[in-house]
């Protein structure tokens, strides 16, 4: 058995703008993405004795996460073997999930990126950065970012990545209400609504460059928030709670329904977390920080 492990980090959207649809019907976006310390633990094992040749077995601590070809980690592994022509002598993937599922935090995308990274290492790095990023995009639009991590502007359908100045030191409180939403439904709904406030990517980049958390917070904006919060009212309740405890901003991530708040004061963030845990018992809540020096591709 040969084994490689890695952490697969969640992301938040400091900004998210939907610019329209491309010719293939995919939504064109522009977003500033940030890796956060909330992560799953991923272990990838290759059976070198070939006793389970061609099999991909997945173990996950959450029983409702699919373990077959619907799993992003499975898809990534299958594509890797197809693309490289390397024989699958029997693959075992173990995922310990902490990142909430269907939450707007790209947990599944991060697992897929982790599998590509680990398999590439296990097999002597047959794929370069570019090839890995191309494979990543075939699994999902957020997977290329998850391979790179840190702070990036993502455009196109999410695959065009430009590194951005790192996020200033701060505390990030993330909460996931019990209800989930379907990403596709939110995109469809956004096509039908008029967007009132859009993020300003240039202003966000200037704010990041200033290294001032308050300026960054001021520019956080997600055009999907109105649509998702109409379906999940807890989003607004969480935002009010975060702001009452001194968050510099409280905004939804991705298509939701997770909400994040930026704090400079750890004690204030911890008080907000404690209130959420006390009053909204089924809401998951994590006190995290931005992750910068992260590149699973090494
Ligand atoms: P994104 O922000 O990329 O839309 P998300 O955080 O909203 O991602 P995921 O956690 O990736 O959503 O889950 C979306 C769906 O994918 C769920 O219905 C889940 O069952 C399924 N899924 C497939 N593979 C995985 C995986 N490895 N981890 C979590 N969910 C997975």
Automatic annotation (TrEMBL):
GO terms for molecular function: 4-(cytidine 5'-diphospho)-2-C-methyl-D-erythritol kinase activity; ATP binding. The keyword Transferase applies. Pfam families: GHMP_kinases_C, GHMP_kinases_N. Keywords: ATP-binding, Isoprene biosynthesis, Kinase, Nucleotide-binding, Transferase. ATP binds at residues 100-110. It comes from the Bacteria. Residues 71-150 form the GHMP kinase N-terminal domain. It catalyses: 4-CDP-2-C-methyl-D-erythritol + ATP = 4-CDP-2-C-methyl-D-erythritol 2-phosphate + ADP + H(+). GO terms for biological process: isopentenyl diphosphate biosynthetic process, methylerythritol 4-phosphate pathway; terpenoid biosynthetic process. Its EC number is 2.7.1.148. Residues 204-280 form the GHMP kinase C-terminal domain. The active site is at 11, 142. It is an enzyme of class 2 (transferase). InterPro entries: GHMP_kinase_C_dom, GHMP_kinase_C_sf, GHMP_kinase_N_dom, IspE, Ribosomal_Su5_D2-typ_SF, Ribsml_uS5_D2-typ_fold_subgr. The keyword ATP-binding applies. Pathway: Isoprenoid biosynthesis; isopentenyl diphosphate biosynthesis via DXP pathway; isopentenyl diphosphate from 1-deoxy-D-xylulose 5-phosphate: step 3/6. PANTHER family: 4-DIPHOSPHOCYTIDYL-2-C-METHYL-D-ERYTHRITOL KINASE, CHLOROPLASTIC. Belongs to the GHMP kinase family. IspE subfamily. Catalyzes the phosphorylation of the position 2 hydroxy group of 4-diphosphocytidyl-2C-methyl-D-erythritol. This is 4-diphosphocytidyl-2-C-methyl-D-erythritol kinase.
């Amino acid at each position: 058995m040969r084994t490689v492990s890695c952490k697969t980090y969640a992301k938040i959207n400091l900004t998210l703008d939907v610019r329209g649809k491309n010719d293939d019907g995919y939504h064109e976006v522009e977003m500033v993405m940030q890796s956060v310390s909330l992560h799953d633990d991923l272990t990838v094992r290759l059976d070198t004795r070939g006793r389970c040749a061609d099999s991909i077995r997945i173990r996950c601590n959450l029983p409702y996460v699919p373990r077959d070809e619907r799993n992003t980690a499975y898809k990534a592994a299958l594509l890797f073997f197809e693309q490289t022509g390397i024989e699958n002598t029997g693959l075992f993937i173990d995922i310990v999930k902490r990142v909430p599922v269907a939450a707007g935090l790209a947990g599944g995308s991060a697992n897929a990126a982790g599998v590509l990274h680990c398999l590439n290492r296990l097999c002597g790095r047959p794929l370069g950065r570019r090839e890995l990023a191309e494979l990543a995009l075939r699994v999902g639009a957020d997977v290329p970012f998850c391979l790179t991590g840190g702070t990036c502007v993502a455009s196109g359908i999410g695959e065009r990545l430009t590194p951005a100045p790192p996020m200033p030191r701060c505390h990030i409180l993330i909460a996931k209400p019990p209800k989930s939403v379907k990403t596709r439904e939110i995109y469809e709904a956004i096509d039908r609504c008029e967007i009132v406030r859009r993020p300003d990517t240039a202003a966000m980049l200037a704010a990041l460059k200033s290294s001032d958390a308050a300026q960054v917070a001021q520019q956080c904006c997600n055009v999907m928030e109105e649509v998702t919060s109409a379906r999940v009212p807890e989003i607004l309740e969480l935002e009010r709670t975060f702001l009452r405890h001194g968050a510099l901003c409280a905004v939804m991530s991705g298509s939701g329904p997770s909400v994040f708040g930026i704090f400079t004061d750890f004690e204030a963030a911890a008080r907000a977390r404690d209130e959420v845990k006390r009053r909204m018992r089924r809401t998951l809540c994590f006190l995290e920080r931005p992750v910068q020096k992260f590149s699973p591709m090494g």
